[in-house]
Each structure stands twice: as structure tokens, then as C-alpha cells.
Design goal:
single chain, 6-stranded antiparallel β-sheet, globular
């Protein structure tokens, strides 16, 4: 269907086509019936229905484990409400279509904060608005440093430890260990906050920690850009960073589009032209190429296969070169490079409509819908009313499935969220600092009206890599199972939105149940609440059932090899002029993959009383010998004894072990030191092996045997 042109719209205006309507706070609304797409009688009939108006502006929206929807607007980009201290939040019940107002924290405007669901189902909120631009002394938006957890069971906002500095428009991403990466946003003086902070939601004592980049010397002061600082009371703040402990790079921008990839790396794919990756185990930022700037474009992680080979891919689409330029229709797929540390982009077919402020939703059948958006700035006369559907299997836009246009324009500060029953709730839109839209619409996809398979009982999950049994009377017809994370959305993307396909175990299928393999690790499926769906042979999904995936309690020790004994005693010798490094090498399929390494215990001794020099430990990459992260301890060889004793090396922060990691003792001092090893395999054959090599970085020995010692996550 052709898009309404600007000229046609102006004719429509001149003819009196704009009508006042209920639902906007502070401004009348407009609806272009010309955008509507009438489905033919032969097509399955998707449908839009009106929902009840929200309580205030629904800018931050999250699905809760009970199937209800939390939303928050704070002042809602309404300056008069900010000045009056009128801050709003609510809960919507999709079954009853009713709203309940919440007690928003008094005196702290959480509008434009970051948010993310936690493992326990609560919603973490960090940052917000300390001051509107037009009210601040330096004419900049100032960021709040507050942190709250919204407890979905008590319906209370629980105040937590504040961040170091303010953040207005920050991004938050759940990491594989359940911690929350937080970056960017304007600080309490209106300048980019360059601290990388990580929230640990430990129930007894949740805390924030600054993560520094060991390969950088970048610095940051609140209220400053480089050496230029604002002249307002309290500025500048303290300085952070320096040599070997750099802050985040400049130029990341507000609300950067970021996603946890299956290799544990966080990929950044917008809004600006520079792309980056961040490594949780080291805190290192890397440049990952450049692309077209996508101001208020969107991104979404494509559905994942539940296999160790899954690399992940991201759909990136829409946006504009600058805030004042027209939106693009272009789209691309971004994948990790072979090393996993950089990103590679491939252009794909364009969308039908140019969109800034589009809202992506992964449906339970794996397809992705982009709702709303507009072509120019925040101008609703350029709004796109017809959603678009992307097929991750063909990597192309689906133009055959019937799609119906919505009535209300969805532009800046709008959103869309998948519900438990497969419908999609759409809400919100801002015009300026005086007006926003409280009307809602609910999209019912074609599968909603089909005969759908059923799940008759809520399934439970074992540990990662285990199995899940799903009770269903349609067991014989189930072909696929999708696991969709409950997620939250704000400002036109959703960091935690992800779908994992779970493999049906045919040999365990009965007349009334199917069994699937649970997610194999927390990189594919971070712990938390998910909706699980069964799909029949026609690809029709059931309603979702809530299921919680929790990190199974395990021993912190994952490598435990005692001292060698009897005929199996062996040693590795290190000294200047010979082999200078030795330890453990991790290959594909190793039992150590994805384990969190914090401490490494090895057995060392010196050969003579005159040994002298530093013994250190580090983790290096096999493919380029990059020093990933050194252990803290340095031992003077002269203090070693001539009999083997255990020595503990500790990392500054846990490291997730990856394929091709070398965990090494390094020594190039006088005389020699020795490491206790076995001359037989003690673990998993050649997948984890002992190695040693000289200063030329060439192996002098590598085999399937193992070094004595322990590795632990604590």
C-alpha cells in the first residue's frame, strides 16, 4: 500500500481532517484513516482493538512474571508536571484491561532512566531526570543518580545504593552472571557520564561497582567534556580513570543500542555510527567498526538456537543520520567477527516505510514486528501506521502475512510489548514538553484467532543443560518450542528481548507431554522469567506459560586436579633462556568453557636456593597472544621452597573462560621454577591440555595431560 505523502497530508489538513480527540494530555490528536490497510476476505484477519487509557505517560514499560505490565513515565516529558512534582507510574492488567496507579518515589523523577528485569522478576530502575534543559542554569538536561528496584509482588519502589553520578538516557544490559551493565547518560551537570558501572543484585547487599578498561588511560570528571567544565555550583566533580584503568570511550551516545551476545560479549550497534564491543570479564572496550548513523533507529537480537555453535545476529533498522534528517528505510544484519570481539554488517532488503522511533517486538513464532515510528523529527504527520514483519529465517521482510494499520500515531516515547497470550500492547507518544498520548491499542496477530495448541500446566526448569517437560494434549503435533524472555522497553528498543528455540527430545515425547532441552548456558538465556510456547506443524504458537530460569547452585571449584603421584609424576620447568611460560590451554569443547574463573591454585617449587625473579600469572589468547587479564599476585622466586607447595593467584574480577584461552604461569628469572603436572589425562583429553613454550611464543610441548591445582569462581 502506498504511504501517505506530505502533500496529501497537507490536503487532508486543509480539508479539516484533523479532529480533537480524547487521549492526549495537553494537545489534540490526529488520525489518518488513509493509512489503514483493509484485509481481504481471503486473508487471516489480524485485528487492532482499543485498550484503556494509561495513568500518565507510559515511557518505560516491562512485563511482569504475573502477566501484568508495569509502566512508568515520571514527569513524562511534561515540564509543568516536573515543576509540580507530579510523577506517575502504573500497572496494567491485560485480562481485565484495568489500570492501577502506583506510588512513584516522591521527589525523584525517574523519567528517562534505564531499566531492566532482574532474575527475581523485579524491575531495576537507575537514573532519571534531575533537571529539565530549559530550567537548568547551563541549558542542559541533568541526570539523576538514584537507583530503585520495583518489587512486583509488594508493588513498592525499594531504594537501593545510588550510582556514582547522574544518568539521563542510560542503557542497561543483563550480563550472563545476572549483573547489570550500565553505561552513558547525562550526569548531574548535563555532560556525558563516561563511567562503566555494574550493578550486582545480590539480595543481601546489592551494590554498584565501577568497571575500568585495563587497556585504556581515559579519564572522566562529572560536569566536564575533556578539560572544558561547566561553570555551575558543585562542578566539576571528582576525576576517575587513568593509566590502565580507563573509563568508557567518548562518543557512545545516549541510550546506545546494546545486546548480550552468545559469546558473553556485549555488542553496541547504535544510535551513532561507531560500533563497539565490551568484554565483561576484563572491562575492555573495543572499536568494532563503523556504520551509518541511526539516530533513533532500533535493533533487536534475532532468535537463537540452543547450541554451543550459536553466534547470534542483530537486526538493525531505521533511524536517521541526524535528528533533523528524514528517516531511512534501510536495514542490516550485524554479526560477531570470527574472534567474537568485532562486528560485521551485511545490508538486507529495506523496510517499506522510513521510521525513526520504531518499536520492535519478537513474536512467539520467531518473527519480528516493527510498530510505529515516523519519518521526520517528532512530527506525527509523518507517522507510519502500518507495522512491518521481518522473517529471521529468510532474512527478509514478510510481505505475505496480512497486517492491519493502527489508528493512533506512535512516535517519540511510544512503545510496544509482547503479552503472555501473544497479543502486543502499544502505547504512548510525545509531541513536546507539554503533551503526551495516553491512548493504547492492542494488536491481535493472525495466530491469535487460529486453533492454538495448549500448555496445560506450568513447566519447571532444571539447571542449565537439563530438560524441561511440558504438559500438552497436542504433544504429537508439536514441532517447535520457543522461549521468550519477559522484557522491558523504552526509547524504541529493548536490550533484554530475546527468543531461544528449544529442541524437542522426540524419544521423550508422550501422548500428553513433550520434553525439550533447557538453555545450555546463561549467555543464551540469562537467568530470569521467560514465556514458553509450543508451536504446531503450522507454526501456530500456544499462549505462553511463565517459567523461571535460575542459576543452579554449584560448587565454586570447577577444576580440581590433585598433586601428581606414583608413576604419574611430571613437571614443567620455566627459566630464562628456555621455556618461560606454561599452564593450561582451553580448546573447543573443553569442560572449562563458560566457567567463571576468579582464583587459580597451582603447585610450584624452585630448583635451587639461588632462584631469583618474579613469578606471575595471566590469561592470554592463543590466536594473537593478547594479554587478556593478569592475576593480582606476583611471587618472588627466592621465596619458593624446594618442595611443591600450593600458591593462589587471584583475578581482579571474574573471567569467563573462552575457547583459546591460555591460563599461564610466566617466569624468566635465574635458575628455574617447576610446576607440578600429570603425565596422564585427568580431565577431558585434548580439549583441555597442559602447554609450555619459550620466549619465541612457539610450543615446546603440548599434550592431553593436565596441570595439578584448582580453578574456582570464588
Amino acid at each position: 500500500m502506498p504511504r501517505v505523502s506530505r502533500r496529501e497530508f497537507l490536503k487532508f489538513m486543509a480539508a479539516g481532517g484533523i479532529v480533537a480527540a480524547a487521549g492526549f494530555v495537553g494537545l489534540s490528536s490526529l488520525t489518518s484513516k488513509s493509512y489503514r490497510r483493509e484485509a481481504s476476505a481471503q486473508e487471516a484477519a489480524p485485528e487492532w482493538v482499543d485498550g484503556a487509557d494509561t495513568i500518565g505517560h507510559a515511557v518505560h514499560v516491562a512485563l511482569l512474571p504475573n502477566g501484568k505490565v508495569f509502566y512508568l513515565g515520571g514527569s513524562g516529558w511534561h515540564k509543568a508536571q516536573f515543576q509540580a512534582g507530579t510523577f506517575r507510574a502504573g500497572i496494567w492488567d491485560p485480562v481485565m484491561d484495568t489500570h492501577e496507579e502506583l506510588d512513584h518515589p516522591a521527589g525523584e523523577d525517574l523519567f528517562c532512566c534505564g531499566q531492566v528485569p532482574l532474575e527475581n522478576g523485579n524491575i531495576l530502575l537507575a537514573g532519571g531526570t534531575l533537571m529539565y534543559k530549559s530550567l537548568s542554569p547551563n541549558n542542559l538536561y541533568w541526570g539523576l543518580n538514584a537507583t530503585y528496584e520495583f518489587d512486583y509482588q509488594s508493588k513498592q519502589f525499594i531504594k537501593r545504593e545510588s550510582m556514582k553520578h547522574g544518568r539521563w538516557y542510560p542503557t542497561m544490559v543483563t550480563l550472563e552472571d545476572g549483573r547489570i551493565l550500565t553505561v552513558e547518560g547525562f550526569d548531574e551537570f548535563g555532560f556525558h557520564n563516561l563511567l562503566t558501572e555494574v550493578y550486582n543484585p545480590e539480595p543481601e547487599s546489592p551494590t554498584w561497582t565501577i568497571s575500568y578498561d585495563p587497556n585504556s588511560g581515559r579519564t572522566y570528571r562529572a560536569g566536564c567534556k575533556g578539560s572544558e567544565c561547566t561553570n555551575v555550583p558543585g562542578a566539576p566533580g571528582p576525576q576517575y580513570g587513568g593509566a590502565n584503568m580507563g573509563v568508557a570511550p567518548g562518543g557512545i551516545g545516549l541510550y546506545p543500542r546494546m545486546h548480550l551476545m552468545p559469546n558473553g560479549i556485549v555488542a553496541m550497534v547504535g544510535q551513532g555510527a561507531t560500533r563497539r564491543t565490551w568484554e565483561p570479564s576484563t572491562g575492555r572496550w573495543r572499536g568494532a567498526g563503523s556504520a551509518t548513523s541511526r539516530n533513533y533507529g532500533t535493533s533487536v537480537l534475532l532468535p537463537l538456537q540452543n547450541t554451543p555453535e550459536e553466534k547470534g545476529a542483530i537486526l538493525v533498522c531505521g533511524g536517521s543520520a541526524t535528528a533533523n534528517d528524514p528517516a531511512t528505510t534501510s536495514a542490516e544484519i550485524v554479526r560477531p567477527s570470527s574472534s567474537g570481539l568485532s562486528l560485521i554488517s551485511t545490508s538486507i532488503g529495506s523496510m517499506q516505510y522510513p521510521r525513526r522511533h520504531g518499536n520492535p517486538v519478537i513474536l512467539p513464532n520467531g518473527k519480528i514486528m516493527i510498530f510505529g515510528g515516523n519519518e521526520l523529527g517528532t512530527k506525527l504527520e509523518t507517522a507510519a501506521y502500518v507495522p512491518e514483519l521481518f522473517d529471521p529465517e529468510t532474512l527478509d521482510w514478510d510481505t505475505t502475512t496480512p497486517i492491519e494499520a493502527h489508528k493512533y500515531p506512535r512516535g517519540y516515547h511510544s512503545g510496544a510489548l509482547l503479552l503472555r497470550d501473544g497479543r502486543v500492547w502499544t502505547m504512548g507518544t510525545s509531541i513536546n514538553e507539554r503533551s503526551y498520548d495516553v491512548r493504547t491499542e492492542i494488536y491481535r496477530p493472525p495466530y491469535y484467532f487460529a486453533t492454538r495448541p495448549e500448555i496445560t500446566d506450568a513447566p519447571t526448569v532444571a539447571e542449565y543443560g537439563g530438560t524441561v517437560t511440558i504438559q500438552t494434549p497436542d504433544a504429537g503435533n508439536i514441532k517447535k518450542v520457543s522461549l521468550v524472555k519477559v522484557s522491558s522497553t523504552t526509547h524504541h528498543y529493548n536490550t533484554d528481548q530475546r527468543l531461544i528455540w528449544l529442541l524437542v527430545q522426540d524419544n521423550l515425547t508422550t501422548e500428553s507431554s513433550i520434553t525439550v532441552k533447557a538453555p545450555i548456558n546463561s549467555r543464551l538465556a540469562p537467568a530470569g522469567y521467560y514465556m514458553i510456547h509450543v508451536l504446531d506443524q503450522n507454526g501456530i504458537p500456544s499462549e505462553g506459560r511463565m517459567i523461571q530460569i535460575t542459576a543452579a547452585p554449584i560448587s565454586p571449584i570447577f577444576y580440581d586436579i590433585p598433586q601428581s603421584s606414583g608413576a604419574n609424576v611430571d613437571i614443567m620447568t620455566l627459566r630464562a633462556g628456555g621455556d618461560t611460560r606454561a599452564g593450561v590451554e582451553v580448546l573447543s569443547g573443553s569442560a572449562l568453557l563458560d566457567k567463571q574463573l576468579k582464583t587459580w591454585t597451582v603447585y610450584l617449587r624452585k630448583t635451587t636456593s639461588t632462584a631469583s625473579g618474579l613469578v606471575t600469572a595471566t590469561i592470554r589468547k592463543k590466536f594473537n597472544d593478547e594479554d587478556v587479564t593478569p592475576f593480582t599476585e606476583q611471587i618472588e622466586a627466592s621465596t619458593l621452597t624446594t618442595s611443591f607447595q600450593p600458591y593462589v593467584f587471584t583475578l581482579p574480577s571474574p573471567h569467563t573462560i573462552q575457547a583459546n584461552d591460555r591460563i599461564l604461569i610466566e617466569y624468566s628469572g635465574t635458575n628455574a621454577i617447576r610446576i607440578d603436572v600429570w603425565n596422564i589425562d585427568k580431565l577431558d583429553g585434548g580439549k583441555t591440555r597442559r602447554v609450555k613454550f619459550g620466549s619465541a611464543l612457539t610450543y615446546s610441548a603440548s599434550n592431553t595431560k593436565d596441570a595439578s591445582g584448582t580453578m574456582s569462581s570464588e
